[in-house]
Amino acid sequence: MEEDAEPWGYKWRSSRLLVHTTITIALFTETFLASFLTPIMGYMLEVRLHLDPSQTQRYTTILLSSYGFVGLVSAPAIAYFAEKITSQKVPLLISLAGCLVGTLMVALTSSFWVLFLGRVLQSLSGSATWVVGFALLATNVKRKNLGSSMGMAMSFVTAGTVAGPTLSGALLQLFGYWATWSLPIVLLTFDIIGRLLMIEPQNVSTPGSDLAKSSDATPNNDDLEVLDESTTLLSNASPNFEQNGGRWAYFRAFLSDARVLTGLANILIVASLLSGINNTLPVHLREAFGWNSLLVSTMFFCIQIPNILLGGIAGWLRDRLGLRRPTTLGWLVIVPLILLLGAPGDPRFPWASGDTAGKPIFTGCAIGLGSVLPLVRGVGAVQLAYVVKDWEAKDPHLFELNKSNLRVFSVTETIFSLGGMLGPLLTGSLFETVGFFYMTMVLAAISLTQAAVSWRWLSDRGN
Question: Exposed, middle or buried, 33 (CB in 10 Å: 0-12/13-18/19+)?
Answer without folding.
Answer: buried
